[in-house]
Amino acid sequence: MDCFELKHAQAGYIAQMVRTDRLQQLFRQSVLAVFGSFVAALMLCWLCWERFDHQVAILWIGLLGASALLRIAMFVVYFRTPESERTPQRWECTYWVTLVLSAGIWGGGALALMPAHDLLTQVLVVLFTVGMSVSAVSCYSPYRYMTLTAIGLVLLPCALWMLQQPSTMQLSIAVAVLVFSIFVINATMSLADALERAFRVTREMEWAHRLSAQAARIDELTGLNNRRAFFERAQQLYTQCQAQQRPLCAVMLDMDHFKLINDTYGHQVGDEVLRQTGKVIIQSFRTADVHGRLGGEEFAVLLPDTSLADALAMSQRLISALSGLQIERARGITASLGVAASDGDDLDLHGLLHRADQALYRAKAQGRNRVCVAEGLGAALL
């Protein structure tokens, strides 16, 4: 992966994770909003019951109760869903629908209940809508436009109605509410930006940590595991295969006449040979296999759930792929390989690799550019 691809992958990863963080924060901090909006409506109806149209009030409470139950069901399903499935693509639209429904019912119901000739009740209704708007900032702050939508649906219907009334007092209240809403909107934008920056910084630090951890385990030249990482992963795989009695093969590879390549064509060509060898190894084996560069021009691969015959066939294909490499002036690149299958004589991972290494030396002694199988029961059965 080149620098441009790495930066593109980084930007995409961070953007997706920031979006996911915002969604998780939204669900965590807005659970109480479901109950709060319903309780606020009940309190408003209780305070102004004698001044409200009872049928409208009951209908309003009923609709709010239904929307609250819908939102509660959404929260229950979300928190019961595996974390890997709590994605913005799946949940943002659902949340938007329930929010618009709930906020629309709240604002529309408050307007429907607004008495035409009772200033005190009008002020109480407006105060409750203002309170609901303030709570929206704390509940939906990860999503600025969600917050603004909730404020608009709850606050604007009553404020615009007041703005159209003939009384100076009503007009003053409406103007005050609209001015207040401007400050709330500014606070909303600032808080949402601050949260997004915090999420982004956290994810950027996480990405940097991942890169540093990966760099400590990956051989920079070939893209394979370095010696330390190979032996860590190989030991885990060896232990699992031994415990589960699964077949396991080891392949040791050494480039032929590599010192001559360096001396003849220079280290840049030698590095390119190693780089291309790493690519061929990655392409020739499976994702379940563990491969690494042990040092210099020496490589190793561990093949789980693989018979000795299959390991031999894979190694032969690797030999052919390496011989087809065309690297600047270097031609006829070859390698020698040794293959061994795990058996009862191997006391540990190093014993298995040692037998594969011995087979590799036999391949060198027999003329190079070939695969030799370690001596033992598995070789006899081929």
Low-confidence stretches: 377-382
Judged by helices, strands and strand pairing, the structural class is alpha+beta
Give the strand line-up of the largest sheet. Answer: 2-3-1-4-5
Shape: elongated
Share in helix: over 70%
Count of individual helical segments? 13
**Could you give a short account of the major beta sheet?**
5 strands, mixed
| Run of helices and strands | HHHHHHHHEHHEEHEHEH
Number of domains: 2
N→C terminal distance: 40 Å
- Rg on CA atoms, Å: 35 Å
Portion of residues in beta strands equals 5-15%
Oligomer: single chain
Mean pLDDT: 89
Please give the number of β-strands: 5
In short:
With 382 residues, the protein is an alpha+beta fold. It has helices at 3-29, 31-47, 54-80, 88-113, 119-140, 144-163, 168-215, 227-244, 258-265, 267-284, 308-323, 349-365, 377-380; strands spanning 248-255, 290-295, 298-304, 335-341, 371-373. It has 13 helices and five strands.
Notes on the protein architecture:
- The protein has about 375 residues and is α+β, with helices and mostly antiparallel strands.
- The protein has two domains: about 5-210, no CATH class; about 225-380, 2-Layer Sandwich (Alpha-Beta Plaits).
- It is about 70% helix and about 10% strand.
- The chain has 13 helices and five strands.
- Helix 9 crosses helix 10 (about 265-285).
- The protein is elongated and about 105 Å long.
- The two termini are about 40 Å apart.
